[in-house]
Design brief:
Elements (H helix, E strand, L loop, with lengths): L1 H7 L1 H4 L9 H12 L3 H18 L24
Helix pairs in contact: 3-4
Amino acid sequence: MINTLRTNVFPRIGSNLISELKAADFAVALKPIWLNKSATASRVRQRCDVVMNGHLPIPFKVQPRPPIIAPTFLRQDAR
């Protein structure tokens, strides 16, 4: 799990504080692999959601949360 984050996410956003990260930051990190390695990108996106949801204060963890990084945000045409 950590290897895919280390390879695909940390080089682009690893120096930022988790509390300052936005969906656009993850999109920038995942864009290079989204079309060519879609299965890997999907797994990495899910792992990013786990990290971000794990960082939320306890009152926000009570209800199920939608993915932090919406899959539609990363959709691209394969033109």
